[in-house]
Amino acid sequence: MQSEGGLVRSLARIALAGLVAIAAAMSIAPATLLAQDTVLRRDALDPAFRRALDSRRLRELGAAAGTREPSVAGNDALRIAKGAMLIARDEPTPPQRFATEALLPIRFGVVAAPAGAASPSLVSFRPKASSSGVFAKHAEGYRAQLVVSLVADDASADLVLPRSVTLAVLVEGGTATPPVIAFAQLDETKVIDLAIPTARDKVLVKIEVHQSDVEAVELEFGTQRGRVQLAASPLEILGYGLGTATILVEGDELVGAGTAIGLQTDAGHLDPLRPVLDAQRGATATLRSDGVGQANVRAPSWDSEAVAVRFVAPLAFLLFALLGGVLGTALRIFRKAARSWPRALLVGTGAGVLGAVLWALGLRVLTLDFAPATTEFAALGISALVGLGLGTFWQPKTR
User: Fold this and answer.
1) Who's near 74: CB < 8 A, 6+ residues apart?
2) Residue 358: Cβ within 10 Å count
3) Which of 197, 141, 146 is nearest to 172 (CA)?
4) What is the chain's percent helix, strand, coil content, to nearest 5?
5) Domain 228-312: CATH superfamily, name plus number
6) Helix (H) and strand (E) counts for the chain?
7) What pLDDT, in 10s, does the model give residues 96-142?
8) Mean pLDDT, range 243-253, rounded to an integer
9) Domains 31-223 and 228-312 are alike in CATH topology
10) With contact defined as beta carbons under 8 Å apart, do 186 and 161 qualify?
């Protein structure tokens, strides 16, 4: 009986050892599979990886630096080197203004073979970027923060990375600190400080797989700029260079004293184009008309709204100048009746209109302003002034 009992106990121990061995083999099967080259069927890829394969944008990230196209094993399978990952870049699209957070269009794939699975499959994950998307004013330029993490497409997947994932961050016209970040596992989070020296409407931040030929992802950031308020006085002036308006510029607390505010206009002439704010954060510029219509003055590099100034036809101005010339000529004829009155009327009226035009253009007793020399009335005034100078020394004979 004792021998039979010992035999039963021996058989039980053998059976238990066998079960333990089977369980251990099943538990280490994925590790054994991932420790060698793996053949992955095309139908095991999700649509994003299949599209990248068809367009030849699928890359294999191996143990060595850089990426390469994965090896083909047959007509519908890929041979993945041990410890390698696949990278699929979605079809590139124009960058959009970044806000809050987004999953980047770069997918990483890791070969996995759960115990009892008939064939290996691909578990994918993507980088996720979080940020306000706005560079804020800082003591030295403008700063922003970018937070990057890795997120599995299947939240329930228990994924172990076969190697670290390294990303590079680049800022157009600025810096990223640190410029390169590495992830050893999915639950890591990296914070990158972004900096630019001056405010811009659009700042491109690029994220790419470090030392690879995978196309970078472009994120468009904005800049939190100071607000500049523009006003004009008056809002309606004479056209054709005869009128001027004062453009009032005022900056808020984010725009310091001594800052040059670049102005632009779609009509007329501004002087200066970059007025400098005084200690009260104020400045002025002069807008001179050209032609008739409307001028929209704006400060494009700042948060501001355009101010409109209308250029009106100087009909009343010319009418009064014409009447003044006629009146002056009539007085001259009354005092010197010997002069031929038709010719005197013509010369005097023309001289009166000319004097009014030149005065509006800035002609003073000792000062001649040539700033609006390209306007229509400036050309008229200068050419008429030459003709009047000749006429002063040429006296027509009277019959």
Assistant:
1) none
2) 20
3) 197
4) 25, 35, 40
5) Immunoglobulins (2.60.40.10)
6) 5, 25
7) 888 889 999 999 988 876 655 667 778 889 999 999 999 988 878 88
8) 90
9) yes
10) yes
Number of other residues whose CB lies within 10 A of the CB of residue 398: 8
- pTM for this model (two decimals): 0.56
For position 123, what pLDDT does the model report? 85
Fold of domain 31-223 = Immunoglobulin-like (2.60.40)
CA dihedral 127, 64, 117, 28 (to 10 degrees): -110
State the Cα–Cα distance between residues 110 and 185, nearest whole angstrom: 12
Report the amino acid identity of residue 319.
L
Taking the C-alpha atoms of residue 359 and residue 354, their distance in angstroms, rounded to an integer, is 8
Can you name the residues that pair with 290 across neighbouring β-strands? Answer: none
Rounded Cα gap, residues 101 and 131, in angstroms: 6
The stretch 326-330 carries a mean pLDDT of 52
Coil/strand/helix, residue 175: strand
Predicted confidence band of residue 360 (pLDDT cuts 50, 70, 90): low
Boundaries of every domain in the chain:
31-223, 228-312, 315-393
Q: Which of 330, 327, 378 minimizes the C-alpha distance to 357?
A: 378
Report residue 166 as tokens: 């390294």
- Residue 255's pLDDT is 82
- The band of 344, judged by pLDDT with boundaries at 50, 70 and 90, is low
Per the DSSP assignment, residues forming a β-bridge with 60 are: 68, 86
At 279 the three-state DSSP class reads coil
Q: Of how many residues is the chain composed?
A: 399
